[in-house]
Amino acid sequence: MILILIYCDYHSQNFDSLKLDYQKSILVQNQNLIELTKDKKNWKWLSLAPNVSLSSSWDPFTRVYRPMVNFTFSLHNISTFLQTNARNRIEREKLSIQLQDQLNADINSVDAEIMDIKKDSIALIFEEKNIKLLQELHGIKSKQYEKNQINLEDKINNEINLNNRINDFELRKLNYINRRKKLENKLKKPLGN
Fold first, then answer.
1. Contact 117/124 with Cβ under 8 angstroms?
2. Can you tell me the distance from the alpha carbon of 98 to that of 90, in angstroms, rounded to the nearest whole number?
3. CA distances from 193 to 20, 102, 189 (A)
4. How far apart (Å, rounded) are the C-alpha atoms in residues 44 and 77?
5. Long-range contacts of 81-89, Cβ-Cβ distance < 8 Å, separation of 24 or more
6. Whether the Cβ atoms of residue 155 and residue 145 lie closer than 8 Å to each other
7. What Å distances lie between residue 90 and 79, 85, 95, 154, CA to CA?
8. Within 10 Å of residue 95's Cβ, how many Cβ atoms?
9. How far apart are CA 91 and CA 35, in angstroms?
10. In the beta sheet, which residues pair with residue 54?
11. What is the DSSP string of 114-183?
């Protein structure tokens, strides 16, 4: 029984560290995505720059061209710039909330998978013990058959029962191993990105 607990505890620590690394990796990816939208280099600030125009006018009294420099500011450009910045900030906040919700859903799903795998691990350990008991019982039944204490039909039914249980156990064990590897690969996947 102590070996079972050590075995399960080892696997839970392994999954816990993988889950923590997975969570950190996803958080970094999410933060990078948000920073990418935040630090997007654009030239919209140029809409705040004043319009500058140079012109000259003819002065009929002095018969000279007078140069003129005009500076104009567009309130429409300023308001558009401010609205766009506010909208982008709100969209970044919405994106951040969506990414956090998605991460929480992923972590909850991973926690449920880990719990199922732990339950299957414990069930497989006990099932393996039951198969060993069935094998001992089969040995007893075989000796009873050799001593003519049971008939051939009982011996064959016992062998069929044992073979079916071993087959079911091996299939469950393969399914467990595949689910475990699939979860480990899922948790390691973001680390490779």
1. no
2. 12
3. 16, 18, 7
4. 9
5. 81/44, 81/45, 81/47, 81/48, 84/44, 88/37
6. yes
7. 16, 9, 9, 75
8. 14
9. 12
10. 69
11. HHHHHHHHHHHHHHHHHHHHHHHHHHHHHHHHHTTSS-HHHHHHHHHHHHHHHHHHHHHHHHHHHHHHHH
77: its two tokens = 């450009």
CA-nearest of 46, 45, 42, 66 to 54 is 66
Q: Check if the beta carbon of residue 132 is closer than 8 Å to that of residue 159.
A: no
pLDDT digits (tens, 9 = 90+) for 25-75: 888 888 888 887 776 656 666 666 777 777 777 777 777 777 777 777 777
> Is beta strand 51-59 parallel, antiparallel or unpaired with respect to 64-72?
antiparallel
Q: What CA–CA distances, in Å, run from 126 to 1, 3, 129, 165, 181?
A: 10, 12, 5, 13, 21
DSSP-assigned beta bridge partners for residue 66: 57
C-alpha to C-alpha distances, 183 to 55, 76, 112, 170, 176, nearest whole angstrom? 72, 54, 11, 20, 11
pLDDT at 77: 76
C-beta separation of 106 from 187 below 8 A: no
Determine the Cα–Cα distance for residues 91 and 34; give it in Å rounded to an integer. Answer: 10
